[in-house]
Amino acid sequence: MSRRLLSSTFSAALMSAALLSLAACGGGAKDRPKADLAASKITTIGVNSYLWRASLDTLSFMPLVQTDSNGGVIVTDWYANPNSPNERMKLTVSILDQDLRADALRVAASRQVMQGGQWLDAPVQAATVQKLEEIILTKARDLRRMAIADS
Q: What is the pTM of this model?
């Protein structure tokens, strides 16, 4: 056999083997469990879609300055609760992963209080940030449960 024919035959055999192995991996969607349809990585954005949606829902009462679904960042503008107009908060939510996990979410908060006609920085209680993270995580888990139930 000529070297060229041998090379061509080897390439064809290698290509066939690769295609057969890929075809065997498919398995078909009908073989997948229903829960797989709501897996945390099913997303058209760069981060976990349940965490993203839950974050937007949780912060919907605040004005948004920036949302980046690929980078997983949501930044709010200053928000003053009408019941305490001399205090305002600003939040940054970062979604760090495509998995629905507690450590894939980080909330940073800034707080200011009005004193002498000026806004001055004030400390944020750690419990406030922790509570916001818990609310977002709970909503994200609920969204995932609903997606699984619907599939």
A: 0.70
